[in-house]
Amino acid sequence: xxNDYKYEFxxxxxxxxxxxxxxxxxxxxxxxDAMRTGADAIRVANAYAIHIKELGIKFDYIHGAAYKGIxxxxxxxxxxSELKINKRWGYSRKExxxxxxxxxxxxxxxxxxxxxxxxxxxxxxxxxxxxxxxxKSIKPVGILIAVDCEESSDKKILEKYQLKLYSILxxxxxxxxxxxIEK
Length: 183
Known about the structure:
The chain is of the alpha/beta class. Helices cover 41% and strands 26% of the residues. The chain has six helices and eight strands; from the N terminus they run αββαβαβββαβαβα.
């Protein structure tokens, strides 16, 4: 696989049951299952942070999509700070709030910010992005997810909104590694 953190991340997903394979050949991924304890959550966030650093993704603001992306954004920001990369973070709500910190966005999103969305799936990440245009001058750098399922419908969504996809793992990498382990 080449990267120890990716291998460790995959093992963590399997051990925690966050990735499930069905007899039909289908699979499901639920990143929340990989984050049930504080130590588990740090393992997940660490994989995201190392991947961001490894790729050299440049951005100002980490955005978590409601709901699973919210703790992910916080934890990734913390882990990035451990790597001496300090970023602002925030998240979107499902519904607009009328009191306190009003609106659908919580966090200090500023004009001309470049934004990296972190989430478990492409779909919720894109839906989250669609709520952000209240700040017309912000620029997306993309969406970072745990596993790219490499489905054509996901690619069409990304192309439609001109969003770049970053993923820690691709499903083909996972299947190849699991096949190697079975030998």
